[in-house]
Amino acid sequence: MSPLKIKKGATSHSAYNLRSTFGDEIERHTLAVIVENEPGVLARVIGLFSGRGYNIESLTVAETDHTGHLSRITVVTSGTPQVITQIKAQLGRIVTVHEVHDLTVEGPSVERELALFKVAGTGEHRIEAIRLADIFRANVVDSTLESFIFEITGTPEKIDAFADLMRPLGLQEVARTGVAALSRGPH
């Protein structure tokens, strides 16, 4: 998978402009970080990003090996190639970090996100919301006479597209898990 290029005129959402003076393009990268599952590890990883003004677009973390006490942190971030290299190097220096993988450059990967959408509406808006949910393969997980809660999984782009379509139909609230990602293949 090639890094997602962000248009040169796009603005950064971090505290600092990540574009270097050489005009490098800002790229979106998904990093998988295997860490010790102990108190303070997530704070150290997040501190690395906030202390240097790097933006985190998505963050998920969960224990993946109960016996080995390891957790997997999946971080989606953006920056110039130099910034991404620096982030990976600095993550690798944290004592409790076992591995850092850049899924964006290591080969094909699969990214998924779970989201819940509360949509309020009656009449035609209600019917249209159900029709669109069916097209997007979203499940109704709660229903009242005046609202639905839909559950949808897919790429972040699919989640964004569903949100865009639900806004005019009465979108009230959204909860997203953040990206979970794995590299494809046996390795």
From TrEMBL:
Q: ACT domain: which residues?
A: 30-105
Q: Which InterPro entries match?
A: Acetalactate_synth_ssu, Acetolactate_synth/TF_NikR_C, Acetolactate_synth_ssu_C, ACT-like_dom_sf, ACT_dom, AHAS_ACT, AHAS_small-like_ACT
**Molecular function via GO:** acetolactate synthase activity; acetolactate synthase regulator activity
In Gene Ontology terms, what is a biological process of this protein? L-valine biosynthetic process
The record lists the catalysed reaction(s) as: 2 pyruvate + H(+) = (2S)-2-acetolactate + CO2
Q: Which residues form a coiled coil?
A: none
Keywords in UniProt for this one? Amino-acid biosynthesis, Branched-chain amino acid biosynthesis, Transferase
Can the keyword Cell membrane be found in this entry's annotation? no
Protein task: Catalyzes the conversion of 2 pyruvate molecules into acetolactate in the first common step of the biosynthetic pathway of the branched-amino acids such as leucine, isoleucine, and valine.
Q: What is this protein called?
A: Acetolactate synthase small subunit
